[in-house]
Design a protein that fits this description.
alpha+beta
């Protein structure tokens, strides 16, 4: 999970452990600014990113093979 959090970059969509969904607008060391749908921006610690929730919602869906 720590590696996943360290690899987050500007523009990524993430979900926090508290359930907030947004796009990473800025990264500042161990924190990041999360931008929400209507333009609101809130600063979070990188450790607040939920790898499981983020991957479940935003991971690319692979096409089914037959």
């Amino acid at each position: 999970e720590k590696k996943f959090q360290e690899e987050i970059k500007k523009g990524d969509n993430v979900v926090t452990i508290g359930g907030a969904h947004g796009r990473v607008a800025e990264i500042e060391g161990d924190t990041f600014i999360l931008e929400f749908e209507r333009g609101a921006r809130i600063k979070f610690s990188k450790s607040s990113i939920s790898m499981a929730s983020t991957k479940a919602i935003y991971s690319e869906k692979k096409p089914a093979t037959t």
